[in-house]
Amino acid sequence: MTGLVIPSIAHKFLRLLPPEDAHKAGLRLVKLLRPGKVELPEGIQLKTWLGRLAPPIGLAAGFDKTGESVAHLPGLGFGYLVAGSVRLNPRPGNKKPRVVRRRGEALV
Predict the structure, then answer these.
(1) How far apart are CA 76 and CA 59, in angstroms?
(2) Cα separation of 51 and 43, whole Å?
(3) Contact 67/83 with Cβ under 8 angstroms?
(4) Cα four-point dihedral sign 58, 108, 19, 11
(5) pLDDT, tens digit, for every residue of 52-68?
């Protein structure tokens, strides 16, 4: 079984769920991954004054609102993660739907 089979099955399963439920389930699935080191060609590494950034692709704040999967996300190949903020008094949040699928306009 190749490494692409399980993500393909998971992707098909997640597409059956409503977008917000799929997002939550995807975050749970990320926790099952064993973070590994992603080897990249020298051409897609970025040198900054802070050091080498490989890959120069990051994940924006808000993807993992609770921060429960942050430790596992680098294993997906992100070069950096931007964590959200923490509040003393939580806010109720936006009305649903907060997550939508934009077929033909986004990565699927």
Answers:
(1) 10
(2) 15
(3) yes
(4) negative
(5) 777 778 888 788 877 78
